[in-house]
């Protein structure tokens, strides 16, 4: 990798940006270019066996591209990216979507929060993007799980090396999404978590990989409920943790 762009992120922790991508050739170049402007050439796109030229487009834009051998889902792509970067000495891992919803400036927002608070996990939160139905589901999951988050499904997250280690453990091997299940695992492991407000854009092209159909929504809700119930069994009744609220930065 070249280092022609100077990072604006504090250098106390080496930070990698990990972008899972499936058929995102229409947006991934801009997402990569803008991320490089913020953090330099520490941008890694994990191509989940796209049928279009996502990988070539991301590589041309300056990203290091990892190619999954077959479609494995966004969560497995993120795990592959984290493992790759951990092996190369990175200390902090920012995940963001390839569809253009996340603004590159938000990398700095959540990294600054992580730097200031030393939280193990920082979530970039924008609950306004959720539909009324999605916000209703968030409230239900929050009430049952005790997570207390404003934006449960954000893909914009920052993990330190301790949290990333748990994300690569056997506990997360069967998860499908980077939200409720992973957050419950991190809570059980005592990781400190912050949620910081960010601004997000509307998706420019395609549709959500998680909520692509009503069947997919039902599958997501069923799996999430199973993870929450499993967490209650594993944690007993002692899951009334007080998570930090929005951090002012």
Automatic annotation (TrEMBL):
It holds the Pfam family Glycos_transf_2. The keyword Acyltransferase does not apply. Residues 17-141 form the Glycosyltransferase 2-like domain. One of its GO terms (molecular function) is transferase activity. CDD domains: DPM_DPG-synthase_like. Keywords: Transferase. SUPFAM superfamilies: Nucleotide-diphospho-sugar transferases. This is Glycosyltransferase family 2 protein.
